Amino acid sequence: MYLPVLPSGSRARRRSHSLLWIVFIAALIFGSSGSAHALPEPFEWASYRSPGFAVYVPSGMSIDGLGPMIESLYAEVSQFWLPSLVLCQQLSPDDQILVPCESAVATQAPILAAARRNPGSCVPAPSSVFLYPSIDALQWDLRDYSVGGRFCGSIAFDPEMMHTLSRVASHLPESGACSPDPLLSIYVCGFPDEGWKSILVHEFVHLLQITNLTDLDMLPLDARLLLEGMAAYTEYALGYGDDFDVHVTEPVAYWIQHGGRFDAVPEYLLYPAGALLAAELCAVIEPASFWALFSPIAYGCMLDLFDYDAADVAVHASVDGALVSDASDWQILAALDFSARLERTTGVCWDEWLGRLAADLREHSVSPAGMATFEWKRRNVALRFRLLAPVLSEATYDEFLAISERVAAGIAHVTDVDRAEALLALPAVQFSADVVDELAWRIPSLENEVRDVSGEAAVQSVSLLSSLRQRNPDDPAAYIAAFAEIVNRDLVWAGPTVP
Ligand SMILES: [Zn+2]
Predict the structure, then answer these.
(1) Rounded to two decimals, what is the model's pTM?
(2) What is the CA(225)–ligand 1 centre distance, in A?
(3) Distance 320 CA to ligand 1 centre (A)
(4) CB 3.0-4.6 Å disulfide test: which of 46, 314, 327, 484 passes with 83?
């Protein structure tokens, strides 16, 4: 995802996207990507409107009931976190995809809905949802090889993003449609067969967050643990992800057992560690109360906005032993820090709770598949595969997909990860100017990832690639070898290793 309101600067802005997380469903998506080394097929977008969304799919690929399906996914997400938010369903199952949106408020987030209610205010543009048929096309458009989906806010104000999204930019809602200008857009791959719903659920959580979460810095840990953790956990909570233990709990447990701490979560475990925290907190507090911990005022505003009878709201907070669910209590919460909020609403002491969670994880048994998942992430295998895909042979590509599927299914062993590693280290077999073009298109992504994993100094070697290309325009082999060396050397995270 992409969230420019985050306080921690460009790194957070760039890294807070989705989803290396989807490596676990990525086997399915990779499977739809076709040839190992063909440029994404060009296609035209066809657009559809549902009440809350402008939906874009490749022309001729739409499916029946797509609009209602998207509205219903969003309703699932908002009902899970903010049950009072979804006021009505405006689409019947028989509705066609093309729906006029004049009367729509159902899926607009409260802040946008509030703008509608104020006389003279403009009508918010709907959020755009782009459904990609393959991960190749999505990554090409986003020019980011670490993602399978992304949430973008206020894209119009980011020239760099506009440039890389030139293929979709003409479809985005016009700037100036509303103030504050929503211009929210979501990019998801795996449409129409596999994977897209899980990713869309994840991105919808970000949509809900950007319009409703006010106190992002409340968690006394990295704020992205909260943002990505909530999104990743929701995939599982709503039944769009499998094997929570193997994909989430066990890798985090393995890391804790080797000295990991929640106040220093490495990038490669951000999603599972965040998902685990969200899941564990939601085990002691209802999701809506969880949300209110990070946005009591927004929650209170929502209650007021829709004139809800407090008794109807599915929020129960125990204050001094009494069950309360009243906006004013959330206003009281707003004055407190996170630990005090948690203690007031649940009686739970944060430090003790976190200590107990870590202690439990130290005792948690980790299966071979859990260790393989950990190692898959630490070695950044999925990203490295995406970066090197253009130079792999068909046989290598297919074998890699089979291993990905084993990881996704939660049945891999660390020897599978070793085998994937060996495949990535094989000499390239595709040598052509086209392949060099494909690799060169990946340079910004490679540079970002190398900076994250190995630091600024290592980025030097990426910068040298372009001069290498200029010096040897007729020798793609040298460029390809240098590119592969960087991928296999500078993108592996330090950390405990699985023996
Ligand atoms: Zn995300």
Answers:
(1) 0.81
(2) 10
(3) 36
(4) 314
Measured in degrees and rounded to the nearest 5, phi and psi for residue 230 equal: -60, -45
The rounded Å distance from CA 120 to ligand 1 centre is 34
Residue 172 alpha carbon to ligand 1 centre in Å:
21
Q: For residues 482 and 485, give the distance between their C-alpha atoms in angstroms, rounded to a whole number.
A: 5
Distance 235 CA to ligand 1 centre (A): 11
Residues 6+ apart with CB under 8 A from 339: 220, 349, 350, 351
The confidence score (pLDDT) of residue 120 equals: 42
Ligand 1 centre distance from Cα of residue 310 (Å): 32
β pairing state of 53-58 and 127-131:
parallel
Q: Which residues have C-beta under 5 Å from ligand 1, the single-atom ion?
A: 1, 18, 228, 231
Q: What is the pLDDT of residues 330-350, one digit of tens each?
A: 667 777 888 998 898 888 999
Two tokens, residue 384: 């490295």
CB-based burial label for 259 (10 Å; 0-12, 13-18, 19+): exposed
Instruction: Give me the residue spans of the domains in the chain.
Output: 9-217, 379-490
Q: How far is the CA of 473 from the centre of ligand 1 (A)?
A: 39
